[in-house]
Design goal:
Length: about 220
Amino acid sequence: MISDEQLLQARFSNLEDSLVEEMMAKGKIIEAEANDVLMQAGQPIRSTMLLIDGRIKIYREDDQGNEFLMYYLEPGSACAFSIMCAMSDELSQITAVAETEVTMLAIPFADTASWMTKYRSWDAFILRNYRKRFEELLLTLDHIAFRSMDERLVFYLRRKVQAEGPELNISHQEIARDLNTAREVVSRLLKKLEQRGALSLERNKVIVKNVEQLV
């Protein structure tokens, strides 16, 4: 059976072995169930969370409870926005929810802050995460600002398929919440895609048959 350290080395293969050993020594393995809230907006951030397995949704929420989906975290990554808040000693500006069962490594921020100068690979890892999340956020904003709702839905489904595969266990209401629109709008657009043969709809499930037909 693969050990936590071996899995960590596999997920973060660009980090030095000595850094991985220090991560295991100073960090704590945390497991969470799907739908668990892992980080809440307005709360202080004391640890750097490295995702070892599973998938996490990062979003912002307004005063009315409307959600703005920012991006997903995949294994081998960290949440750049939470690290930025921790570095500035600010409260979290985002909420993180486990989309699946997840395994994380929580490391006190006091330790990870010192690694920026101690380990070149850690500095490069953080910069890569900043760049990737910023690019994902820009892409999301572009679709919100310049695309119609049907184009936003296609973009959303493509991103979900890339992360989860063609069978998406999600309801129309959940999609509407992520896109900040009405369930009726999502249902109508999904029905149009089903009629084109791009996907099929089941109760609380969307099965994408042909990604290329998602246009």
